[in-house]
Amino acid sequence: MYKKDEKLVKSLAGKIGRREFVKKGALIGASSAAALRIAGRIAPGEALAVETPELDRMNVKCLKVGFTNCFFIPCDGGYMQIDVGYPNDYKKYLKGLGSLGIDISEIKYLLLTHHHDDHVGFAAELVKNCGAKIIVHERALEPLARGASEEDIRPVNGCVTLIFLIFSSFHKFVFPPVITTPKDFIVKGDDGELLRKIGVDADILYTPGHTDDSISVVMKNDGGDEIAFAGDVAMDLFNFCCCKHRPIFVKDIEEVYRSWDRFRERGVRTIYPAHGDPFSMEELVRV
Questions:
Q1: 216, 218, 238, 287: most buried, per Cβ within 10 A?
Q2: Where does the chain cross the membrane (predicted)?
Q3: More confident residue, 282 or 28
Q4: What is the pTM (predicted TM-score) of this model?
C-alpha cells in the first residue's frame, strides 16, 4: 500500500500550490488519504528494540520510539541516552527500555540533539523520574523552556510539503517545557572534553542546518572507524520524495551541507540518524 501512496503523493507534489489540491492548508481530493497514511508513519508509535551488529559490539543499544531512534551509550554509572520520542510515548518507552535490559535509574545523562518535539517530547518527565543530567546546545534553551518547536524551518521539497500539510493538520509541535538547572551541561559549539569526563569516549560536534541548535555525537566503533549519531542533520526518511538523506525540514540547506562536510573532515564512515536506518557517509551528496 505504501508504494502506491508514495507514487501518488510524488506525482501530485508539483501541484501543491493549485487550488484544486490545497484549500486552507488541508489537502483535498485523491491525495488526502495517501498523504495521511504516509504522515501516520511519522506519528507516535510503539517502542521497539533495534539490533545493529556494529553497535551491539560496542555495547551501544538502540530503541526506536515511534519513529525516533534513541541511543544508549555506556557511561560512568550507567548510560547516556541520545534523544527521546514524542510526549505521549513515555509509557511505551519504559516498556521498550525493559526489553533492552535497562532500568530507568541507569539513565545518567540525556543528550538532546535538538529541541524538536519528536526528540524532547517526554524529556521533562524522564529527567524528573530518573534524575538524569541534560546535555544540550545553548540555542535550544529558549524553545525548550517554551515547550514548542521553532517555526523557522521549511519542508525540503514539494513532496515533503504535501505530507507536512496533512501531518500538521492533526499534530501540534509542542511538548512539556524542559527547564535546565545548574547541574546540566550547556554546550556552545564543538566539545571534545565533556563526554570523556562522564566516561564516553566521544566528541560533540556542532552540526546546524536542520536547526540552529543541532549537535551530533562522533565516536569510534570497535574497529577504530568513526561513526556519528547525527540527530536530524541527515536522515533515512521519505526516500521516495528524493530527500536523499537531507532533513525533511531545514532552516538552512547550505548549513546542512557544511555539517556533512564536517563529518567528512572527521573521517566519519557511518551515519546513525534519528530517523531510519544507518547508512554510509558516501551516500551524503549535495543535491
A1: 216
A2: none
A3: 282
A4: 0.86
Going 41 to 47 to 49 to 52, the CA torsion angle's sign is: positive
- Provide the sign of the torsion angle of the four alpha carbons 57, 58, 59, 65, taken in this order: negative
Report residue 237 as a C-alpha cell: 526518511
In this structure, how many other beta carbons lie within 10 angstroms of the beta carbon of residue 105? 12
The cell numbers describing 262, all together, are 564536517
Grid cell in block for residue 123: 524529556
Span 2-280: which CATH code? 3.60.15.10
Dihedral through CA 280, CA 282, CA 283, CA 287, nearest 10?
150
Which one, of 285, 120, 148, lies nearest residue 215 by Cα?
120
**HSE-up (13 A, CA, CB side) for residue 48:** 8
Q: Are strands 154-155 and 133-137 parallel, antiparallel or unpaired?
A: unpaired
Tell me the C-alpha distance between 62 and 60, whole Å.
7
In DSSP notation, 191-249 reads BSSHHHHTT--EEEEE--SS-TT-EEEEEE-TTS-EEEEEETSS----GGGT-TTS-SE
pLDDT tens for each residue of 120-168: 999 999 999 999 999 999 999 999 999 999 888 888 888 888 888 888 8
The continuous run of DSSP H or E covering 137 comes out as strand 133-137
Specify the DSSP class assigned to residue 149. -
Per-domain boundaries in the chain = 2-280
